[in-house]
Design goal:
It is built from three helices and 13 strands, in the order ββαββββββαβαββββ. By secondary structure, the protein is mainly beta. The C terminus is likely disordered.
Length: 230
Amino acid sequence: MTNRMLDLSHPVKDGMITYPGLPPPAIGSHMSRAESTAHYGVDTRFHIGRIEMVANTGTYIDAPFHRFEDQPDIAGLRLECLADLPGICIEASAGRKVDVGAFDNLEVNGRAVLIRTGWSQHFGTERYGKGHPFLTSSAARLLAEQGAVLAGIDSLNIDDTDDSLRPAHTILLAAGIPIVEHMRGLSALVGQSFRFFAVPAPVAGLGSFPVRAFAILNNQAATAQGQRTL
């Protein structure tokens, strides 16, 4: 059947709140269309935009440098870990903790492992920042040991933000597994076969940066591993 693309990212908008306590992006013009008429021919106009934001804005990816100073930054991420990855998406909307049982009998080696919690429905609201689902340290260790290439979640954070040690980030990024947070639309991927993409601009010296995360869904019959609801 015909493949189709699914956008899994929140649009970045002026003044939006991604993570409580972090400043929102400020989006405007460096040169407006009206101002550009002084530089170009008659009826030739351009807009040059300007954005000021923290790197953790919208749907973004964490590189190992986000946690470890001597590890690859955003520019150092290999495309093989970001694009055209075989993906698997699990349903984990029954509770806050996504533990090892969520991955029973699943093949995660070489895959982008996405966790659908449903928490993205609260994005942009005060509710989004409180009591969000997260991956346990045991589950993060399982993904690292079993060779996952990338991990993603549609929640505020892949860690419990009440735990200042951030074990999931520590375990996954130490294993060289990038993390995509603040995703949306993952319900369409549960039980499906798809390829996953989350490529940031190659900005040196940063550990996080927004991505346009998307999946190419091949519309094949649901795979057995995605049919369970947790």
